[in-house]
Amino acid sequence: MTQPTAIRRALATTGEHLPTALRLAADGLPVLPLRRGKLPFGNCPACAHNACGGRPNMKTPGSCACPQPCHGWAAATTDPHVIASPAWTTAWRHAAAVAYHPGGAGVTVVDLDDPAAVQWARATLPATRTVTTTRGEHWIYRGTMPSSNAVRPGIDIKSLMQYARWLGNGAGVTAPLPAVVRALAVKEPAPARRTPQSLTMPLRGREGECPHRTPTYLERGIAMGVQRISEARSAVHATVYQTFLAVLSTHGRCGCLTDAHVTRLFTAAQAKGETVRHCTDAWSNALTALGL
Question: pTM of the prediction?
Fold first, then answer.
C-alpha cells in the first residue's frame, strides 16, 4: 500500500524512531516519542498544567485537540497521520526512544529492574513473553490492570495510564494476565500496630516485674533484631520469624515492648521485601509459639 505523501516526507526527514513507531501503530500499539531520560515530551504552553482540560481518555474533564505530543502517556496514538504530522516529526527528530501505552494495546508490562527481581519473577510468575531491558526484563501479559510503581523491590507494573519503552518483540508467547500479578497492585492494609494486649499484663507468674535493669538492654535487643533482618541475604521469611521469636521470648512478657519497637522490626522486614501481611502473620505465629 502506497504511503501518503506527508508520511513519506516525514520519513525522509527523521531518524530511525518514526519508522518503528509507524510499524508498531500499524500493529495496534499506541505509540509516543520519548526524549532523553526515557521521559515523554513536555506539554506545550497551551496545555501546561492541563490548562486545556486534558485528553478525552485521561481522568480529567474536557478534551484536547493539540497537535503536539502532549500529556505524556495519553498522547499515545495509532493514527499514522498524527504520528507523522509536522509537530510530531519535530519531536521524532529529537527523540531518544519509542514508547507505547500498554493499556491501550491490551497488555500489562511487569517491569523487572534488577537481577533479584528477575529471579523472583522466574520463581513466582507464569511464563510469558519477555523482553530484555538495560537492567532487567519486561514480562508482558495479555490483559490490563491499574499501573503501580514499586509493588516489590525493583518491580513496577505498567498498564493503564502508563507507558513503556519499546525494546523489541522479545521471546515467548504472551500469556493471560494472572491473578498473582493483579494481586501485586493491591495495596496492603495499614500496618497493624501489633503490641498485643497480652504484652501489657503479667504472664506466667512474672507479676509484672521487669527483668531489664536499664532501657539500654531493650534498645540493644531491638537494634540487634533490626540488624539481623537487614543483613539477611536469603531465607528472609524464616529470618523475620526467628527474629520476632527471639525478641518476644526475651522482651514479650514484661510489658516493655511498645508500638514504636514493633514498627521498627516491621519496617526492617518490609525493606527486605516482606509484606505487612507476612509481618503480621510472623508476629502472630511467634506469639502463639511462646504462649503469649
Answer: 0.62
